[in-house]
Amino acid sequence: MYKRDMIDKRLGKLEPKEDRLGRTITLKSIMRSVTELPPRPKKFNVTSLNLKSPAPQMWGNDQEGCCVEVDICNHQTYFELVEQDKVLPITTKIVSKLYHRIAGPGDNGTYFLDAFNYWYKYGIKVGCKRYKIEAFTSVDWKDMEQLKYAIWLLNGVDFGAQITNAAMEQFDEGKPWDVVSSKVIGGHGIFLGGYDDETGLFDFWTWGKHQYATPEWIEKRGDEAFIAVDKKNNKNSILNIPLLNSYLDKIKSGV
After folding, report:
1. In b/e form, how buried is each residue of 133-156, taking b as 16+ CB within 10 angstroms?
2. Annotated domain spans of the chain
3. What are phi and psi of 88, to 5 degrees?
4. pLDDT tens per residue, range 87-120
5. How far apart, in Å, are the Cα atoms of 227 and each of 54, 66, 104, 188?
6. Residue 25 burial (CB count, 10 A)
7. pLDDT digits (tens, 9 = 90+) for 6-50
8. pTM of this prediction?
9. What is 9-31+42-231+238-249's CATH number, 3.90.660.10, 3.40.190.10, 3.20.20.80, 3.90.70.10?
10. Which residue, among 197, 19, 201, 190, has the nearest Cα to 120 in the 3D structure?
């Protein structure tokens, strides 16, 4: 478990984990051809999708390493805003309970894959309802065009990165994350909700703030990324849905 008490922010994403059950499908294999997709906007942020869009929340990530759970709760929040026009009343208590359901007792961090499998199978419980995803798939975070299409058409990307001392300092100073030679101190799960071609920056949500990052930082410090398909997703999809469904059928039947 990595932490840096002087700034009250925690890291908690564990190293990428192999999916031996085959439930992770690479986005490239099921992504529709760019020629089939509408031209993406030069600038996009999930906050533009609904006037009710909440500000980034800490949700206890200053007290324990629940960053992966904060990330998927942010993603589910935008699924519901876009499709149901409502803000989920997610609280620090809900996120903490989710963290320990997925990662177990103690404060030892979470594997992204474990979080996605839990989200897919059990959902995020808010009140009496569980919010599940239909499927999830990995993204090549070094392919900036694919990454931007995923942010735009799938309401954000769930991003895993290796955080350095320099990144901590850049965050505290309000500077974009950029590549600087510095010691890695731990892994972090972060919701990626926007991009801007003009500035060249991407918009992450972490530790209760918007944190911008350069493509060079993403390519250098990223170590995994996922997108999710919501149970009620009805947007123009980046995915080849028939092909995705054929893969899911095989997975469900144990092939």
Report:
1. bebbbbbbbeebebbbbbbbbbbb
2. 9-31+42-231+238-249
3. -70, 135
4. 999 999 999 999 999 999 999 999 999 999 999 9
5. 21, 19, 24, 16
6. 19
7. 458 999 999 998 766 555 555 555 555 655 667 889 999 999 887
8. 0.86
9. 3.90.70.10
10. 19
